[in-house]
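Exercise (ungraded).
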Amino acid sequence: MAQVTTVVLGRGRRGMSGLDVLLGVLLLGAVTFAFKLVGPLAAGKLTLSPAVTRIAELLPTALIAGLVVTQTFDGAAMDAKVLGVLAATLAVALRAPFAVVVLIGAASAALLRAVGLP
Amino acid sequence: MTPDPEPISHDRSDSDTSTHDEGLLLQAIVVGLAVAAFGVAFGVAAVSAGMPAWMAVLSSVVVFAGASQFAFVAVTASADPLTGAISGILLNLRIIAFSLALAPRLGPAPLAGRILDGYLITDESAALAFEGDRTGTRRRLRVAGASVGLFWVAATALGAYGGDLLGDVRAYGLDVAFPAAFVALLAPALRRPGGLPIALSAGLIALLGMQVLPTGPVVLLAGLAVLPWLRSRPWSSDAGGAA
């Protein structure tokens, strides 16, 4: 686990247990709940402007793509993780369902590590 | 979590209520199991990043929106909690779109019921709620939402408290489940106009950015990839595949 801490994510154990992190979780939770409630509480009273709708539908694609890259290339240029994500991408191209994609990514990385790849 | 409504098939012409309910329950459990796989990965990843197990579980109860929880952990670990929360909030903007799209189909209900409906809205439960006849929307949202919620929280706890029992999670490739899940999340958007160029340019921005900046700002910077596309035609008014 400690290895994952340093390899995958840099902040380390101590940095993720503070009050500031708890407040961050609560802030994310409160705003997300507000987003979810917009429909059931304001149905008929509120319509989004086309610009806001457009940003809301496009922004997650860019942010998730950014996360894929930062989470994938955090080690060597071509390690088991990179190849595992590549396998998952192939599965997506073949229209595999969500759970299968995750499974293929994890399993192929596990397999490659079992045969000695870093 | 998975915003792709495609894998869920629903018999729209169903008139037998008991078969209908059994079908719904089965669908809800299948979706719940898929979410559970992601939940275990989240619990393990959160604890690996240094988050206490109880906080990972709390996150699944309070936030209850998987991709943003992952993003929060990844960005907070390399930057700070505020940048992490902002990343998650921006990711969750899409929820406004399908919450608004779902609302007219829900019909009137007491305030407490509407608050419950709101809480239960996730990518998966909304996708299931949109499938089928209008009058059954609330029932489908609640059954699917309850299933997804229970599996999500239980799986997070399993990953967070049980991850240590697994030993080195890298041997199981669980650290790869994280980016693999994000690739899967991208799938519906990639099939829409502009989706692929946005993802590729955002990826390129991130790749260049991470040479000089920490993860948090890099992820936000990748968001700039949408700018050339803001004036193009909207994907649709159906919110099912908004992510």
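Further reading is listed at the end of the chapter. For now, observe: Residues 1-13 of chain A have pLDDT under 50 and may be disordered. Chain A touches chain B through 89 residues (CB under 8 Å).
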